[in-house]
Structure formats: C-alpha cells, structure tokens
Amino acid sequence: MRSGQRPGHALGLVPGHVLGQRLGRRFGWLWAAYGTSALGTWLAFGAFPLIAIRVLHAGPAEVAALSSVGAAVGAAVAVPLGPWVEFRRKRPVLIAMDLARFGALLTVPVGYALGALTFLQLLLVSVVVAAADITFRAASGAYLKTLLPAGDLLVANARFESTAWSTTIVGPPLGGAAIGLLGPVATVVADAVSYLLSALGIRATGGHEPRPERRQAARVRAGDLLDGWRYILADPTLRPLFFNTALFNGLVMAAEPLLAVLMLGRLGFAPWQYGLAFAAPSLGGLLGSRLARPLVTRYGQHQVLLAAGALRALWSVGLAFLGPGTGGLLLVMGVELGLIFCCGVFNPVYATYRLERTAADRVTRTLSAWTVTTKASTALLTALWGVLGALLGPRTAIALAGVLLLATPLLLPRRAAARPAEPQPAPSRA
C-alpha cells in the first residue's frame, strides 16, 4: 500500500469505516499498520530456522535456541521498558519499535549478501525483535485506550483479532511459496519492509496525543520494574485472568512441538498435511472474532468471557487420540477448528476486559508484565514438555497437557469487577 493511499478507497470508504461501525480515520491507519506487520510476520514464519539450517548448517540445539533463548532474553530486556514507556507518548514509541524491528531484520539479508551472516547475529536479531514486540504490544494497548472511548474497544479488538486470523490463513502459504522460489532470506526482507510500512501507517494516524503525567522521580527505579505485576496481583479480577491466560497459552504451545513429532514422525503425515491441519482451522478464528461483539451484546461481556474461556479448554485432550491417515487428519482439523473458534471469541473479549479494568496510567506496565509472563511461562512449559515427551512419549505428554487444560477455567474471574474510576478520553474522529 502506498503511504498516501487510503485503505478501502476503491470501495468509497475511509479507514476505520470498513465492515461495520465507524471508528475514525486514526484507528483506520492503526488497523492498517497492524495488518501489514502481521502479514509480514506470517510471510516470514519459520524463516530463521531455515536460514540457520540451510545457510549456517546449525544443529537442533542451535535452532531451538533461536526461539527459546531469543524470546527469553528479549522478554528480560523488555522488563525495564514498560515503566519507561508508561510516562511517554505512545505513538512515537510504537514508531520507534517498528523501526527497531525493521533495522534489526534488515541486517540479516545484508549479512547474507556480504557472506558475513553468523548464528550469533540471528540470535541477537531475535532478541531485539522479541523485546521490541513486547514493548510495542504494551504501548499499543495504552495508545488504543486514548484513541477510542471504552464503548468502542471491543469492536476494535475484534477487528484486530479478525485480521490476525486472516493473515494466519494467507501468510504461511504465500511465505512457503516465496521461500521455495526465492529462499528464506527473501521473506525476512518482506517482514522487515512490513514493519517500515507499519511505522508509516502509525505516523499517518496524526492527531494530538496528550502527554502522560510525569512522576516526581524522572528515573526508573528498581522497584518500578515490578509495578505491572503488583497491579495485576492486587486486582481480584485481573489476577485470575492473568494466571488463566499464562497457563492456557503455555500448555497449548507446549504440546505443539510434540504434535509435530507425532504427526511428521511416527504417524507419517506429509508436511503439506501438517500445514493444512493448522491453516484451514484458522477460519474458525476469523468467524469467532466476528461473533464476539454480537455475543457480548446479547449475553454480556462477563458471561461470554466465562463461556468462551471454558469451552476453549475442552478441545486439546482430543489430540491424544490422533491416528494415521485421513481420519487422523480430520481429527486434528476438527480439534483445532473448535479450539481456534473459541479463542477467536475469547481473545477480543478478554483484551477489552483487561483494558477496561486497567487504569489509564498503568496500562503499559500492566500489559508489559502480562506479555513477559506469558512468553516466559510458554518457554518454560515448552522445555518441560519436551522432557516429558522424551520420558513418557509424545502422545502421553500431549494427553497430560490436555487434561491440565481442563482445569484452567477454574482460574477465570468468577465475578465482574467495577472499572477503575477515571475520566474517559474524548477522541476526535476525523
């Protein structure tokens, strides 16, 4: 998309007035920026491991380190950035994080072209991208809360969720084709450019963003690093939701490598069948995200949060009964379809619920602490389930993860708490 072109212009629409309720031009540019970077991320899905294997001849331990060590160190680097970002305007931070990811990723094709690419460089790039991603997510939540009134947050989060699943469906097949034709480095270039376009889109949002009130102490103190966790753990509604999402995401992701071993190894599925088993059910996420707002309108936010949060925990245990052939493939697709549909409903409702119950001057620190914990728990559980898979076998370890997931609804908030008292912004809608 050219920087001066408006999304939907060919249809006579303006950004933010697509597929329903109008949220304004500024949100439209933010949405377009999110979609662009999300598509770039999925185009380059799996590019770093392929580069490590094919170009640098890395072994299994090094390939695993790219995702686990890179994400863990990136999360640690992002911890002090949350309090620092809290008292700064969020739009410049978002642009800076996009440009940081653009610059870091661009070093990979440059190093490759010069014949100087190393594994250490890939690892450092993954750390920078992970830290910038966590900071971007935290700042974007705070920025969205200043951009829109509370009544529009669910619509906005549903559109982000719908876009995420749409790019999940489209991106990996296109990226796979590009890797086959041009090699994995080409998709890294596409990912880097997507962050540059995202930065331009966020810059195009324009408008005035109020400067957050500064604290008496300008410097970030050691105690400030824990402010996000203190706020979450002190809130009777956020606390159970925090533990629920960390445990649920960690268990689901911990079973994924073992499922790949089971399907591609012992059961003999072809790589295209494995890809199809996860790409096609993403349509369920697209459908679920479109239904989130109507369901909340009819049944209420808290009831939908509880129901979708409970239903999404029921599916994964079915993967323990996976067998070979067409029946096994259909089983995986059915389980993933149900799981992803429920997540598609739950995620925008949960994101809105969390934003509404977080005070405006705590959003960045809270979201940063939340994302760091989720990434760290996912890395820890993935490593633990790798050990369990080696000791008990992948099928037994997958079944254990599925059984533990059945208990996660117990951590959902039993009652809805009142929103924190704070003045709501009155954003201008160009």
From TrEMBL:
It is found in: Cell membrane. The chain crosses the membrane at residues 29-51, 63-81, 241-265, 271-292, 304-322, 328-346, 367-388, 394-412. Keywords: Cell membrane, Membrane, Transmembrane, Transmembrane helix. Pfam families: MFS_1. It is a multi-pass membrane protein. InterPro entries: MFS, MFS_trans_sf. It comes from the Bacteria. This is MFS transporter. It comes from Actinacidiphila acididurans.
